[in-house]
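Late entry, evening session. Most of the bench is empty. Finally got around to the prediction I had been postponing all week. Sequence below, unchanged from the version circulated by S.P.
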Amino acid sequence: MNSRTLAASSAPGSAQPVDVRLMGDDRAVRALVAALKQAAACGPATYRPMRDSHGTRAYLSVIVPVGPAPAT
């Protein structure tokens, strides 16, 4: 985790980090990570080839703001 994630997770009732794994076509995964970084507070992504070598896995943390409770 990066320092921004640690700070956000330490305060109760504040934004929370969510660890995300993306899998798919290399260009699509990298484009989605870039879009997430522009739209949300994200840590750096790490990229690894998929086990079958036909795509990419990306791992990153996204800070999710605290909002109203979801309707059930």
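Two things to note before I forget:
DSSP finds two helices and four strands in the chain.
The radius of gyration is 14 Å.
Will write this up properly tomorrow.
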